[in-house]
Amino acid sequence: MNDFSTLELQHDPRGFATLWLARPEKNNAFNAQMIRELIVALDLVANDGTLRFLLIRARGKHFCAGADLAWMQHAAQLDFNTNLDDARELAELMYSLGKLKLPTLAVVQGAAFGGGLGLISCCDLAIGAEDAQFCLSEVRIGLTPAVISPFVVKAIGERATRQYALSAERFDGLRARELGLLAETFAAQYLEQRVAHWVDTLLLNSPQAMRACKELLREVAHGETTAAVRRYCENAIARIRVSGEGQEGLRAFLEKRPPAWQAQEPRP
Predict the structure, then answer these.
(1) What percentage of residues in the chain have a pLDDT greater than 90?
(2) Which residues of 37-58 are buried (b: 16+ CB within 10 A; e: fewer)?
(3) Cα(32)–Cα(83) distance, rounded to whole angstroms?
(4) What pLDDT, in 10s, does the model give residues 19-77?
């Protein structure tokens, strides 16, 4: 565990990490310190070649209530350039999470407002409780979801983003699943059971292939079928086939045995 005040970064012996938001007394709301610590934590994760994927979770009742009120009160007294510096820090957090080479899975309970919804949108996958509450609440207090907006649009689409950003209305986990923000919803009491299921599922997969797949999906995200995209895809499959894990996976499939990466440490 690292020396953070607002977070916990835990490593599982099976080869993944869990990044916990750990300000439950403040409903895990962002302040400047939490944002800085999240950037540092993501940098540690990005440079750890032993990790296969990252979970993002939250201590307490709520995932993240958005911006901390005291932090917002302080920001209101700052000039444009200082506010711009704050915005750049938040953007660095979102873009660092969005471009992380590891697969990321957010686990959501309670409220996920403003920047909390942004964090979820930056992740590759997200699951959550049916009664979780989501909101792009910024316009209610005279602001906009500026920094997180590109990620929210990618996660739920432009039309839905317009609806919820302009109305600031809340929606629940079931609606979040309909929008594609969450891959799965369930009653809150099944949270740990479903997290364990998703962890076990991801542990079946080649770590190298998951990273390569994430890079591939970035390249083809716009659905273009240009000559350059075609060449990229042809090279991508050729590279992974001749890689060590690609070769091991093919041999294991033909020999009807588990591949080497499925030989994991026992569940802690």
Answers:
(1) 85
(2) bbbebbeebbeeeebbbbbbbb
(3) 11
(4) 999 999 999 999 999 999 999 999 999 999 999 999 999 999 999 999 888 877 777 78
Average pLDDT, the chain: 93
Residue 252, C-beta contacts closer than 8 angstroms, at least 6 positions apart: 258, 259, 260
Structural contact between residues 259 and 252, judged by C-beta atoms closer than 8 angstroms:
yes
Helix (H, G, I), strand (E, B) or coil at 172: strand
Distances (CA, A) of 22 to 5, 25, 150: 8, 9, 26
> Rounded distance, CA 79 to CA 68, Å?
19
Which tokens go with 66? 């958005």
CA distance 171 to 164: 9
Domains observed in the chain: 7-202 (3.90.226.10), 206-262 (1.10.12.10)
Average pLDDT (148-166) is 97
* CA separation for the pair 58, 89 (Å, rounded): 21
H/E segment holding residue 252? helix 244-254
Counted residue by residue, the chain has a size of 268
Q: In this structure, are residues 54 and 19 in contact, taking their beta carbons and an 8 Å threshold?
A: yes
